[in-house]
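Exam revision sheet. Question 4 asks you to relate a sequence to its structure. Input first:
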Amino acid sequence: MPGPAGSGDLRIAVVGGGIGGMAAAAFLRRAGLTATVYEQASAPAEVGAGLVVAPNAVRLLRRLGVLEPFLRRAVALEWGWEFRRWADGEVLSVERLGGVCERLYGERTYTVHRADLLDTIRRAVPEGWVRFGARCTAVEPGSDGAVLRFADGGRAEADVVVGADGVHSVVRGTVAEAEPPEYSGICAFRAVVPARAAPAFALRAAQTLWLGPGRHFVHYPIAGGSAVNVVAFAPAGDFTDESWSTTAEVGEFHAEFADWDPRVTGLVAAGGAPGRWALLDRAPLPRWSRGRVTLLGDAAHPMFPFFAQGAAQSVEDAAVLARCLALEPDDPERALLRYESARLPRTTRVQRASHDRRDVNHLPDGPEQRARDTALAAADPLVGSGWIYGHDAEAAFIP
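Answer key, structure tokens:
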């Protein structure tokens, strides 16, 4: 094992080449450090669907110098959190984003395909830093680093290991008690509808959420406006498969929303065979780091997508992690503890807020639902979410 290293030769291994892992490598490079990203996929792939990218993430993308390619594929939202009633599309609440978001938070809010965001961030990472086809199966920590084991029998040594390997993280078991995630009882259907097949109302630069009993339905344009992202949440029943590659029948998707507004069922029909996955639930961790091993993104704080902050929190993690390691390259353990201390309270708050939103979105028709709708109409969600959107992860970190 190597001994203490300075910033010039600190060997950092990032396990996972998704948005969080690539962002970690990009910010480490910006901080003058080097890293190797180990990604289990054999090559870059267009996985997943759409994402909302709020100002707290956009300002960090700008600092990476990748905002220009990001904007070529993103859609700038004019309207956000447009809540509608499930049965007839009555608008319960809507926030104007165009012009207002920049004034309040310095950046706009965008929607984008996950693959386009990943490609954008990858532009800030040297090609030689990424090793595809490297599925990490174990991390063996030592007093001055760790050994990574891979499915093909290979191994690698590192001074620091960053687990950015998602909700099923292998690295997480090195840091925390190995416990399987719980199933939430909710599943998500997703589809990407070509613009030519989508109704005009779904092509607006708006993030629209239809709220109904036990379910909600979301859509917004992505891919430069050439497609519409659809994601809907419904009771999971016996379904427990948590995978981007699992599909369902159109009839299954339609059955969940059959009595909803025809604009919803029309989008379901236009999307073809949907993807389907179960939402997993994990309680916030009390710690992310042990020795020279730490966690980032969904490996540390998987959260329901109901605040659209999963990817943004991973990018924030990456920015702070890089800053901590750059400040104390000769004491990685202390740097990782400072990173954890800086990030854990915020991600826990977002994680819990996202979790609580499930019950609010899925109220059955009745007094509680009417009270919710009245509260939505009276609130200003853009201002109310200032603690999320106005946060500057780098500026908030005080050495």
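Marking note for examiners. The longest strand covers residues 182-194.
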